[in-house]
C-alpha cells in the first residue's frame, strides 16, 4: 500500500531465511482483512506497507533451528508472530508474546511467498495436504475465525449462556460459529443485512436483532428477561458498537471485544456501573489453531463460507475496493 | 449533606418497617467512605442526601417476611441492597441485583438507626455478639474491605501471582490484605506516603513503588522481568491511576478496578492492544461477607486498622473535613 487507498501488486525480491528460526512459505491462498481497510481509509497511516497477515501455504525452506515445521508441510499461521514458549505464550496470550510482531506492515502475506519468523511458534502444520475445498476454511483460521473464536471465548460463551454478537462482518459471523461450537444456548446476531442474517443463521444464530444503539440494547434486554446477555462479542470497533456491547451485557457478564477500536473512548463510569468483565484485543490465534484446524479437517465447521469473492492476487486492488464499498464480506486472493 | 461541603447531623424520625422484607437496625458503628467525598467535593450532585452506606449494628425489628435475620442479631450489611436470590445475585453479582438500591443517598447509615430493605439478602449475622475490638474490622467488611477484596478477586490475585495495587487509600490497603489472603506471591503497593507504606507492609506488601504514571509502569515492569504484573488493582478512580493500572498489567493479565471513576475516559485502542482483562465496578460485597466475617471472627485478618480517626456521630462534619484534607485515611463514627 503506497498510500491511503493506493494498493498495488508489484514484483519484490523473494524472501530468504534471515534468522535460524524463520521459515519461508509459498502461499496457497491469502485474503483481505477488515483491518486492512484502516490504512486503506486513512484511519491508520499507510506509507509503503507490505499488506496481508492471513495465510496458508507450503513450507519451502526452514532455518537451522526450526524443529517442528518441515519443508513440504502445509501450514496455517497466526497474524501475530509468537515463539509459543515464553511465559506470556504459555499463559495463552501469544499475540502479546515477548517476540510478538505483526505480520501486517513489515512482512506481508498478500504475496506469493513470505518469510515467517519464529516458525515453530507461529505456524501449525495440518495433518496432511488438504483437499482444495478445505483451503478457504483453513485460511479463515489464520485470523477471522481465530479472532471471532477468541471473541466468543473472551465473552465466556458456553452452555446455558445467551450470547449476543455486535457486528455482522466476517469476524462477527465467526463469533456466531464459535458461540455455537462452544455450546451457547441462544445466539443473537445483531445485523441489518438480509444476506448476512442468513449466514448468521447458517452458523448458528437463533435470533436476529436489527436495532442498534439504545434500541438494540433494549431489544437484547427484552429477549433476556430484562437482564441482558451473559456474553456479548463486540466485532466492529466503533463507539456505538462498544457502548452497545457494554449496555447489552448483564451485571457480572462478559464482553469479548475484537473490533480494532481506533477513536473509541470508553466512559470509565459507564463501564464501572455496568459491573461487567471486559476482555479482548488482538486474538491469540496461535492458542486456538490446533483445535480449529482439527475441526476444519474433520469437517465439523465450515468457516470458509465467509469468503464471498475470490480474485487472483494481481487483482487485489479490486478486492480492497469491494470490501471498502461493502460489496463483499471478505475477499480471498489466490494464485 | 445539604449541599456540597455542607454536612450536618440533624434529628430525623426513627425509621420504620415499610416492606415486609425490611429490617430496622440500631447502628453500633458507621464510617465515612472515600466515595462520600464525591458529593462533598461537588463531583457528584449533593442535595439533601442521607449519607453513609457502611454499617454494623443490632437488629431491632424485622418485617413479616424476613426469615434468616432475627431481632437481637448483630449484623453486617453491604452498601448495596440485594435480594441474594435473583439470577444476577446467584451468579455472585449482588451489587447488580434486580432489586439493587444504593444505601447511600436514600437510606443513609451515618445515623443511629436505619431501615434496611431486603434484610435477608443484604445483611449477614455474626456468629454471636462481637467483642468490642472486632467492631472496626466488621464495619470495614461492609464496604472498604469487601471492595478491596473484590478488587483483588477481579484482578485474579492468587498463588504464584504478582499483584500491584494502585492507590494507598483504605480500599487499596484492603486490596493488599486480600491479595495476601488469596495467596499472592508478591504484592507491590504503589504509595508515596510513609505511614500508608507502613500499613501496606503490615497487610502484606512485599514491595513499594513510589513512582506514578509512566514511571510507575516502568518500575512495575522492571520488577517483573519486563512483563508487567499478573494482577493489578485500581483503587483510585482517576485517569492517571486507570492508565497506570492498564499499563502495568502483562498481556493476558487482569485489572480489578474499584475506584469510582468519574471523568475517566479509557482510550479503547490502548485497552485493545494491552490485551488484558478489565473487570470491576461496585463490589458485590454480599458475596464475600460470610467469608470475611469468619476471617475477622477467627482473628485471621485485622482490617479495622484502616480507621485512623474515630469520632462520635455528632462530629461527623469534622470527619469529612479530615478525610477531604487527607489528614485521615478513614474515619469511624460511633455513638
As an assembly, this protein is homodimer
- Give the low-pLDDT segments of chain A: none
Enter the CATH topology name of the largest domain in chain A.
Quinone Oxidoreductase, Chain A, domain 1
Gross geometry of chain A: globular
Features:
homodimer, 335 residues, alpha/beta, Quinone Oxidoreductase, Chain A, domain 1, Rossmann fold, seven-stranded mixed beta sheet, six-stranded parallel beta sheet, 13 helices, 16 strands, 32% helix, globular
Short overview:
The structure is a homodimer of 335-residue chains. With 335 residues, chain A is of the alpha/beta class.
Notes on the structure:
Two copies of one chain form a homodimer. Chain A is an alpha/beta fold and 335 residues long. Chain A folds into two domains: 23-143 and 284-334, Quinone Oxidoreductase, Chain A, domain 1; 146-280, NAD(P)-binding Rossmann-like Domain (Rossmann fold). Chain A contains 13 helices and 16 strands. Chain A has helices spanning 37-41, 87-90, 103-106, 119-122, 135-141, 144-154, 170-181, 194-203, 213-222, 239-248, 268-274, 285-297, 316-324; strands at 23-32, 55-62, 74-77, 80-81, 101-102, 113-116, 123-125, 162-166, 186-190, 207-209, 229-234, 249-257, 265-267, 277-280, 309-312, 331-334. In chain A, the strands form three sheets. In chain A, strands 1, 2, 3, 6, 7, 15 and 16 form a seven-stranded mixed sheet that branches. In chain A, strands 10-9-8-11-12-14 form a six-stranded parallel sheet, with helices on both faces. The first copy, chain A, has a two-stranded antiparallel sheet with strand order 4-5. The longest helix of chain A has 13 residues, at 285-297. Chain A starts with 22 loop residues before the first strand and ends with a strand. The mean pLDDT of chain A is 97. Chain A binds chain B through residues 87-88, 91-93, 95-96, 98, 225-227, 237, 242, 250-252, 257, 260-269, 271-282, 284, and chain B through 87-88, 91-93, 95-96, 98, 225-227, 237, 242, 250-252, 257, 260-269, 271-282, 284.
Amino acid at each position: 500500500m503506497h498510500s491511503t487507498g493506493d494498493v498495488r501488486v508489484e514484483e519484490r525480491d523473494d524472501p530468504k531465511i534471515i534468522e535460524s528460526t524463520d521459515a519461508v512459505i509459498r502461499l496457497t491462498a491469502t485474503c483481505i482483512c477488515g483491518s486492512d481497510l484502516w490504512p486503506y481509509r486513512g484511519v491508520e497511516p499507510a506509507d509503503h506497507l507490505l499488506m496481508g497477515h492471513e495465510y496458508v501455504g507450503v513450507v519451502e525452506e526452514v532455518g537451522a533451528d526450526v524443529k517442528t515445521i518441515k519443508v513440504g508441510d502445509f501450514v496455517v499461521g497466526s497474524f501475530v508472530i509468537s515463539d509459543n514458549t515464553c511465559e506470556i505464550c504459555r499463559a495463552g496470550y501469544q499475540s502479546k508474546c515477548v517476540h510478538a510482531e505483526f505480520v501486517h506492515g513489515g512482512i506481508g502475506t498478500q504475496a506469493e511467498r513470505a518469510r515467517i519468523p519464529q516458525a515453530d511458534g507461529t505456524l501449525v502444520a495440518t495433518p496432511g495436504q488438504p483437499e482444495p475445498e478445505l483451503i478457504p476454511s483453513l485460511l479463515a483460521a489464520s485470523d477471522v475465525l481465530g479472532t471471532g473464536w477468541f471473541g466468543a471465548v473472551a465473552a465466556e460463551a458456553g452452555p446455558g449462556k445467551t450470547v449476543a454478537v455486535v457486528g455482522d462482518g466476517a469476524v462477527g459471523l465467526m463469533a456466531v460459529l464459535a458461540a455455537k461450537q462452544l455450546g451457547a444456548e441462544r445466539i443473537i446476531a445483531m445485523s441489518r443485512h438480509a444476506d448476512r442474517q442468513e449466514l448468521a443463521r447458517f452458523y448458528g444464530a437463533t435470533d436476529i436483532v436489527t436495532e442498534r444503539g439504545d434500541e438494540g440494547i433494549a431489544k437484547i434486554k427484552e429477549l433476556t428477561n430484562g437482564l441482558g446477555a451473559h456474553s456479548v462479542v463486540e466485532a466492529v470497533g466503533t463507539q456505538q458498537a462498544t457502548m452497545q456491547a457494554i449496555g447489552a451485557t448483564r451485571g457480572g457478564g462478559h464482553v469479548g471485544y475484537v473490533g480494532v477500536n481506533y477513536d473509541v473512548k470508553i466512559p470509565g463510569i459507564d463501564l464501572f456501573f455496568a459491573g461487567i468483565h471486559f476482555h479482548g484485543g488482538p486474538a491469540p490465534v496461535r492458542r486456538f489453531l490446533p483445535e480449529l484446524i482439527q475441526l476444519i479437517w474433520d469437517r465439523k465447521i465450515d468457516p470458509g463460507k465467509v469468503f464471498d469473492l475470490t480474485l487472483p492476487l494481481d487483482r487485489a486492488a479490486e478486492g480492497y475496493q469491494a470490501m471498502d464499498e461493502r460489496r463483499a464480506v471478505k475477499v480471498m486472493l489466490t494464485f
